Amino acid sequence: MSNNKWHIDNLRRLLISQQEEYQRLGLEHELYAETDKAFYSQWLHHRLLMLSLIPEEYRKDGAKVIDIGGGKGRMSVLLSGLGLECVNIDCLYLETEALNTEGKPLIPLLKNYCEKKGVRVLADDFYQKGIPFADDTFDLAIFSEVIEHLPNSPKPLLSEIYRTLRKGGHLILTTPNMVARSNRLRVVLGRSIREPIESFYKMEGCPLGSIYRGHNREYVLPEVEYMLTQENFAIIHAQTCNYSPPSRIGKIFHKIADNLANAWHSDHLGIKEAFITLGRKMNKIVSFEMAHFIVVLARK
C-alpha cells in the first residue's frame, strides 16, 4: 500500500500549493500561462490521474524518472519532492528571450527554481538530437501532451524512450483525442478543429520564420496503441477521459427509464432495463470514446 505522501488528498494539496507558488514567483510563460481557472478545471485533475498511474514500485526514494517535454517542470518538481530522482528535458530552456507574465526573463527563474527543488534540467531538442542518456537508465518516462507537437513521426523519439528505459520500466503518455466530441461537433458544423485562423495566420506571439509549436498531429487511441506496440511496448492501461464532470446523457436515460417504469405495470419492467442499458452505453460513448484526452500506461 502506498504511504501517506502518495494519498490523493496529499497529492491534491501539493499540486494546489505548487500552483500558488508558480503564480507568486512569476514562473509562468507570458504566452501560455496556466491560469487558476485552467488549473482547477482541468490540469489539477490531469496530473492527479497521471500520478495515480505511477506503478507502486516507483513510489519510493531514488526511482529514476525522465519527464520528456516537461515544460515548466510542474510534474518533475512534484515527483522530486516525493523522493524520486527527476530529469526534465525540454527545448523551452533554449528560449533565452522568453518572458514571464511580469515581463521578466523566464528561463533563469524557472531553471533555478527547478534545480533548487532537486530536478536536473536539460535544455535540449530531444526530437532532433535524441535523449542524451545511456540505455536502461530510467524506471519511468513521462511523455505528457508532447507527442502532438512533434514536427514529424514519433517513431524515433518513442524508440529513444524505449532505449533509455530499464527492462520492466514504464511510460505514461497523454495526448489530446482527435475524435473528441467537441471536434466531431465542429466538423458537423463545418468548422475547423484547429486553432483560430486569425491567430495562426498572424503568428501571434511568434517571430516571423519561427517553428510552429502548435499541434502538428493529433491521434486516436488505437493509433497511439499501434505506435507503442511497434516499438515493443506492452500496453498495461489505455483509456480516453475528460478532466471535467462526466456527461449527463446517461443520467437522462436513467431518468426516462424510471418514469416509464412508474407508468407501466410490473410485467413491463423489461423496458426499464432496456433504457438503463441504453443509458449506460450512451454515457460510455459520450464520456469516454468521445472524451478529450488519451491516457496510456505502457511497459518495456
Describe the structure.
By secondary structure, the protein is α/β, with parallel strands linked by helices. It folds into two domains: 4-246 and 288-299, Vaccinia Virus protein VP39 (Rossmann fold), CATH 3.40.50.150; 249-280. The protein is built from eleven helices and seven strands. Strands 3-2-1-4-5-7-6 form a seven-stranded mixed sheet, with helices on both faces. The chain is globular and about 50 Å long. The mean pLDDT is 87.
Entry summary:
By secondary structure, the chain is α/β, with parallel strands linked by helices. It has 2 domains: 4-246 and 288-299, 3-Layer(aba) Sandwich (Rossmann fold), CATH 3.40.50; 249-280. The protein is 42% helix and 16% strand.
Instruction: Find the CATH superfamily of the largest domain.
Output: Vaccinia Virus protein VP39
Strand arrangement within the widest β-sheet reads 3-2-1-4-5-7-6
User: What structural category characterises the helix and strand content?
Assistant: alpha/beta
CATH topology term of the largest domain: Rossmann fold
Helix content: 40-55%
In DSSP terms (H or I, runs of 4 or more residues), the helix count works out at: 11
Beta strands, count: 7
Backbone shape: globular
* CATH architecture call of the largest domain: 3-Layer(aba) Sandwich
**Can you summarize the main beta sheet?**
7 strands, mixed
**CATH domain class name of the largest domain:** Alpha Beta
Radius of gyration: 22 Å
Give the rounded overall mean pLDDT: 87
Q: What is the straight-line distance between the termini?
A: 24 Å
Low-confidence stretches: none
Report the portion of residues in β strands. 15-25%
- Number of self-contained structural domains: 2
Order of helices and strands: HHEHEHEHEHEHHHEHHE
